[in-house]
Write a structure and sequence with these properties.
The chain is an alpha+beta fold. It contains 11 helices and 20 strands. The longest helix has 14 residues.
């Protein structure tokens, strides 16, 4: 099969002016060094746990600014009013720019409603599930720490609140460096700055002001939409944690990628209406960033061996790969390096699934049904090979290694835990890595 890429770069690199404007705006905020009393040792891990526990657990009301540095035009600034309750309900309303005023997004804990006043349309979709239990938070912390070098850079005031400042440097260069300002008392993220590996600032999101009321009335998180607004439900299934459930909700087979950038795991999946077509949507995360893969059969027949991919840099930092084969249309979207994201499409090939499974089975002889179970949870071939190789070298049950991995422990940690040479495992998984 032949394939080729048409890489579209419609504009030059982001200018120094964009970065200067973002920095200048940040410097206008009340930001200064601040010393906090120590009641217990503060570590990057403890700050991450505080941050993760705060998600959908705190009442807040505030004004937010989002600044995107665009490769296609001038820097874009949006200002919002945000209200969020401890039980997960929220309402965000756009205040500026004037042409977007009236746009609002409401999450009632079950459904998300997004209103576009220009189209007079409300898009409706399922709310994403939120895991609140201590085990899930501990697992999420491990996922972030294995994919980012998290540095506690200091303590500052932001939006008149005492904050911890974290710098999260990705271990895989496909991802962007993140700077987070975390409210030291509540754990709420008060600012996030995203830089590419060349140091260009892509996005800054921050609260200009924030308060944490003990009570928020239901009417504050209840949006009013025009009676004549057209309502479109883009969710076409429930949200699932495994691909087998999604296959049962689909009218066509669904392929999981053979490999992903290191550290990304399947978070959830669902059938969604994207660009007017029902598509299987797989959402992967490395703890702080997300890559989404949408797929559907083509609307027209294509010749055998057909394969084409277009890599597009979207206006505000995201990258999208449009990939078409004889039997599938794919869309891969993420805030990542374009070339790294495009490598994912080489592992999207439903016709070769049986061949790759046979190679893994021949090399490692997995337990009956285990290989299907691993692929069903979206695991890539390289990760599966690493776990099976550790199992064989350490003489541990394959199911034991799989269970530990699902609890958030990566293959490098497991190799050290069972005293297996990491380089030896890396060489055995190399034939199954992304290319």
């Amino acid at each position: 099969m032949t394939s080729y890429f048409r890489i579209h770069r419609r504009a030059a690199c982001r200018t120094r002016l964009s970065n200067f404007l973002i920095t200048a705006i940040l410097l206008t905020l009340p930001l200064a060094v601040f010393a906090l009393p120590d009641r217990r040792p503060v570590t990057p891990e403890s700050v991450l746990e505080l941050y993760l526990k705060a998600q959908n657990r705190v009442n807040l009301r505030g004004r937010m600014t989002v600044i995107n540095s665009s490769a296609h035009g001038p820097t874009r600034t949006v200002r919002k009013r945000v209200v969020r309750t401890a039980d997960g309900r929220s309402l965000a309303e756009v205040l500026e720019p004037a042409e977007e005023r009236g746009s609002r997004t409401m999450d009632d804990g079950k459904w998300i409603y997004s209103y576009d006043p220009v189209q007079n349309q409300v898009k409706i979709k399922h709310s994403l599930p939120v895991k609140r239990d201590p085990r899930a938070i501990a697992r999420q912390t491990r996922l972030i720490l294995r994919n980012y070098r998290v540095i506690l850079e200091g303590r500052e005031r932001f939006a008149d609140r005492a904050c911890y400042r974290l710098r999260c440097v990705p271990r895989d260069p496909i991802n962007h460096t993140l700077h987070l300002w975390i409210d030291a008392q509540t754990g709420v993220e008060l600012c996030r700055q995203e830089n590419d590996r060349r140091g260009n600032t892509l996005n800054v999101t921050f609260f200009n002001s924030i308060e944490y009321p003990s009570r928020i009335e239901a009417r504050e998180v209840k949006a009013q939409f025009p009676a004549n607004a057209r309502k479109v439900n883009i969710s076409r299934s429930a949200i699932y944690s495994d691909i087998a459930s999604l296959r049962r909700a689909s009218t066509y087979d669904i392929s999981a990628p053979f490999w992903m950038p290191e550290g990304y795991e399947l978070e959830n999946c669902a059938m969604m209406m994207v660009d007017g077509q029902n598509r299987a949507t797989l959402r992967y995360t490395n703890g702080l960033s997300v890559i989404t893969i949408c797929q559907a059969p083509p609307l027209q027949r294509r010749p055998p061996g057909y394969s084409i991919a277009n890599v597009l840099t979207l206006p505000y930092g995201e990258v999208m790969v449009d990939y078409a084969t004889q039997s599938r249309d794919y869309m891969v979207v993420g805030r990542c390096d374009p070339h790294g994201l495009s490598s994912i499409v080489n592992g999207l090939n439903a016709e070769r699934e049986a061949d790759w499974r046979a190679r893994l089975a021949e090399a490692f002889r997995p337990s009956n049904g285990l290989l299907s179970q691993m692929r069903n949870r979206g695991m890539g071939l390289d990760t599966i090979a690493a776990l099976l190789a550790i199992s064989r070298s350490a003489r541990q049950k394959q199911e034991t290694l799989y269970a530990l991995y699902m609890d958030g422990w990566d293959w490098r940690y497991l190799a050290r835990r069972f005293q297996v040479n990491e380089e030896q495992i890396a060489s055995q998984m190399r034939p199954f890595q992304r290319r």
